[in-house]
Every structure is written in structure tokens, then in C-alpha cells.
Amino acid sequence: MNTIQLKYFLSAAKHLSFSETAKEFYMTQPAISHQISELEQELGTRLFERTARGVILTKSGIQFLEDAKGFLDLETASKNRIRSLSASDSCHLKIGYLASPCKYFLPEVIHQFRRAYPQVDIELIRMDALEIVDSIDQKQYDIYFSLMEDIKRRPDYQNRKIHEDNYSLVCRSDHPCLHNFKIDYTKIATEPFLMFEPDKAAFMSRQICQVCKDLNFTPRIAHTYRSMEEVLFAVESGLGITILPYKIKDYVKASLVYVPLDSSHTACSIGAAWLEQEGQPAVSWFMNILNQHLIRLATQD
């Protein structure tokens, strides 16, 4: 079985005529019939029933039709991939990312990408939100993963949302606020509150303040920190409480409690922005791998 036989088969299945297939490939009808017969012998089953008016697909032929299309699609994709790799002897991909929100999907996507495209060298640059905003304005990297508000509507970059998350109260498991079934926000307002440095995470800082406003309390900010990990470390150390996206609990391991908040519709969206350039096929390859991974995650949910 070879690809040219599959092409003859698909043409005959489309026209239901060996004569029409012969015309399409500038061959004689007996030559096409011979190639189809060889394919049938190799598969051990008849693909067509011969009739006075032409041919019709058998049940086996109908079943094999999708397989044949799949084989040829795979051949085309493989050729395109090899040609793209040949066109650029060494592909290099630069990815800027926010560390904490990307932990639940990005390492696995990169692993899958490396298996599919081992020739591509990947440079990972961990950044804070402000650094990503400055970097994307200068078009320094090919792909960014950050807050949607910071990366959307950037010139020349395409973007898509990856996931959306609601905010939660984060505290130690022995914090007094957990003793009651319902959170008393008037008491929360008196607690030392831990925040990001506003210039390092401007949008999230504004959102957290909006959440507090929605819940009718003003946080008593005791300390500010440069990164998510520093905020969580301080909470775990008993220096105060904070408000962060709920999904943080899944990808930052700490012995903390995440309590969903009441009556807050403010959400935090994580997304990707990518710059497609001629001669840089690795960006499209990476985004395809990411999309496949997100589809798998969605079906698992």
C-alpha cells in the first residue's frame, strides 16, 4: 500500500468510476483498476463492487475511506513540518511567562512540544506582570502568558483566554476566621492584609481592591511583596491574610486554606499572546500543541 494508491482510491470513491479517476490522473482505466485490485489484495477485502454503471463502495470501502483520508492528511502534515524545519536550520522560541498561574499547564505543553519538535530551542523567561507589559510593548519575545488585561489589544500580537478564575480569601488553616461558617468581613478588615507591590502587579492589585470594595471592607495593608510566592510565604508564616485567585491552590503548594468569597463577580483571566512572523513556524506549532492540551483538559473536566 502506498500513498498514490490511496489517492486513486479516494478519487474512485468520489467519482464512483474508475474511468473518471483515470482521466483525473491521465492514466488508462485498466491501470487504475489494477492499482485498486492490488490495494484490495493487500487489505484482504473488496473496497468496491463493480457494476455496469461504475463502482460502489462496499462496507469495508466506506470504513477504509476515513482511514485513507487520515493517512494522506498525516503525510501532508509531515511533509509541511519537515519542509518548515529544513527552511530554518535552527528554530528558536522565546516565551515570557508569569510563573504561578502557568504552572498547571505550561510545563506539560512545553514537554509535549519538545517531543514533537526537538529541533526547536526554547528560551523561558520568568517575569512579573509589569515586566511582561514592558516586554510585549517592545516585542521582545514570541509568546507571552499573563493576565489577559495586560496582553490583549497589543499591536501585532494575537491573543486568547486560557482560563478564568474567581478570587478567594487565603489564610492559614488555624486562622480564627475559619471558626465560623460565614466569613465576617468586618473582622477581616482589621486583619493585617498582604498585597503585591502595585507597580509589579497593577491590574491584579486593582482587582483585589475591587473585590474588597464589593464586600464592603477596606483592607488594612500591612506589607507588600514583589511576587505571588512571597505573598504566600508571608501568609504561611502567619504575617497576615490575602486575597488571590482560587486556582492558585492547585499549582502553588502551601499548607493554606482558600475560601471562596461571597458576592464578588470580579474574575481574573489568564491568557496567551503570540507574534506570528514569516520564517518563524515554531510559534504556530507551539500554539497548536497548546490548543490540543487545553482541549484535553476541558474534556477531563
From TrEMBL:
<dbReference type="InterPro" id="IPR000847">
    <property type="entry name" value="LysR_HTH_N"/>
</dbReference>
<dbReference type="InterPro" id="IPR005119">
    <property type="entry name" value="LysR_subst-bd"/>
</dbReference>
<dbReference type="Pfam" id="PF00126">
    <property type="entry name" value="HTH_1"/>
</dbReference>
<keyword id="KW-0238">DNA-binding</keyword>
<protein>
    <submittedName>
        <fullName>LysR family transcriptional regulator</fullName>
    </submittedName>
</protein>
<dbReference type="InterPro" id="IPR036390">
    <property type="entry name" value="WH_DNA-bd_sf"/>
</dbReference>
<comment type="similarity">
    <text>Belongs to the LysR transcriptional regulatory family.</text>
</comment>
<dbReference type="InterPro" id="IPR036388">
    <property type="entry name" value="WH-like_DNA-bd_sf"/>
</dbReference>
<keyword id="KW-0804">Transcription</keyword>
<dbReference type="Pfam" id="PF03466">
    <property type="entry name" value="LysR_substrate"/>
</dbReference>
<keyword id="KW-0805">Transcription regulation</keyword>
<feature type="domain" description="HTH lysR-type">
    <location>
        <begin position="1"/>
        <end position="58"/>
    </location>
</feature>
